[in-house]
Every structure is written in structure tokens, then in C-alpha cells.
Amino acid sequence: MDIIEEEKQYGHVGKMRHIRISRKDTLVNDFKNSTIQGLVSLLLSLGAFLLMFFGIYRSYRMSGEGGYDVGLLMIGALLVAASSILFGILGIRNRKKIRHYMEKRGIVISVIVSLCLIALFIAGLGRSL
């Protein structure tokens, strides 16, 4: 398809330049243009972030004596983040959707959580040796 045919097909877009798109409309479009895997990825990544935050808070409240409880909570957060990355990749592979906002956001948050948890584990190993 050359440029002239595309302009004929989408000719109405140029006439509607004065219309403003609100933040609510963009959020609705984000949900419409994402896959179910992308939404699950975003929710799992937020859950992993909350688990990590709760584990750090609990370790602080127990003055570093959390032991197995906090360790299992952090490993659970790492597993949830890994599954979120997997769902995000599966959502991006869907060719029916053009934009993958939720998938990318879920993957980015999960990678950040994973890197933070790995850094915490390495710091904990350094102190124990």
C-alpha cells in the first residue's frame, strides 16, 4: 500500500486534529490494546513488588532476625516476578495486538524487582561469610 492509499483509508484522521484525548481515554486504550497475559503480567509484577516491600518491612521490624520467614517471602517474590516476566513475553508474542503497554510495564517492573532481590541476596551472603 502506498502513501496515497493510506491517506484515503485514514483520511478522517487529519480532520480530527483538534480533538483532545484525555488521560481516561488513554488508559481505556491501554486496556483494550493489551492482551490478557499482559494484564496478568502487570498484576503479578505489582504483587511481586508488594511482596518484596513487605519482606523488607518485616525484616526491619524484626531487626534482621526474620530468618526463614523473610527468606521464603523474598523467594516467593522472586518466583512471582519470574512468572510475570514469562507472562509478559507470552503477551508480546501475540501478533493480533499492535501496542503492548501492559506487557512492557509488567516486564520492566519484574526485572527491577528481580534485580533488587538478587542484590539483597548477594548482600546477605556477603554479611554471613
Overview of this protein structure:
The chain is an all-alpha fold and 129 residues long. The chain has one domain (3-128). The protein is 78% helix and 0% strand. The chain is built from 6 helices and no strands. Helix 4 (36-61) packs antiparallel against helix 5 (68-92) and helix 4 packs parallel to helix 6 (101-128). The protein is elongated and about 50 Å long.
Poorly predicted runs are none
Number of helix segments? 6
How is the main sheet built? none
Element order, helices and strands? HHHHHH
- Seen as an oligomer or otherwise, the chain set is single chain
**Overall number of structural domains:** 1
Strand content: under 5%
Gist?
With 129 residues, the chain is mainly alpha-helical. It has one domain (3-128).
Describe the secondary-structure layout.
Layout: H1 3-9, H2 11-15, H3 23-32, H4 36-61, H5 68-92, H6 101-128
Helix pairs in contact: 4-5, 4-6, 5-6
